[in-house]
Amino acid sequence: MGVYENVRNGVYTNTMEYPVQPKRPKIKDGATAAEAREYANLLEEFEIAESEYAELRSAYYNEAGRIETKFQLDLEEEYAVVGHVMADKLYGKAYERGHSGGYAEIASAYADMVELIGPKRGTPVGYITFSDYNVLSSASSKTVDVTVYLKDSYQGEDQSWPKSLMAVEVR
Which residues pair with 147 in a beta bridge? Predict the structure, then answer.
């Protein structure tokens, strides 16, 4: 499944409910001793509830982080930039541009900008079809599919990528 399908199907939705923060009890000015004891009991309960709240909130944000990391990795896999030196920077820029609209907008911004960094070294970049009997003497048909891999992807001011072929896979 692609990233856009996953967004539509709720794969990147945090199903944990955000916890409700407990309210700190208050004591009136000029409280009686009984009211002060009651306040002390309420304050102890509040401290326990506040600790539980902190744990639940931490779990919620950990899950949100796990989901966002999965989303980023899915984008990198879909656009063949897993492990690319600029992949995190690209995601950060796409996030800045699209996060107010949700994951679909981030994915759209990512798709718009991914060509700026090019594919990761060793990634199939496309298919070339030759319609010539002389391409391979062992070819049994007129068409041979060839996958081209980059040796060096764009990594600086020299914008002449692909520089050379690393390998050609014939099927």
Answer: 127, 169
Count of Cβ atoms closer than 10 Å to residue 153 Cβ: 20
Could you identify the residue written with the tokens 């700190």?
A: 24
Query: What is the per-residue burial (b if ≥16 Cβ within 10 Å, else e) of 105-126?
Result: bbbebbeebbeebbbbbebebe
Based on the number of CB atoms within 10 Å of its own CB, is 84 exposed (0-12), middle (13-18) or buried (19 or more)? buried
Alpha carbons within 13 A on the beta-carbon side of 55 = 6
Give 106-146 pLDDT, tens digit per residue.
Answer: 999 999 999 888 775 555 555 444 444 344 444 444 454 55
**pLDDT 10s digits, 89-104:** 999 999 999 999 999 9
Contact 19/60 with Cβ under 8 angstroms? yes
Contact 144, 127 (CB under 8 A): no
Residue 166 has pLDDT above 90, yes or no: no
What pTM, to 2 d.p., does this model score? 0.65
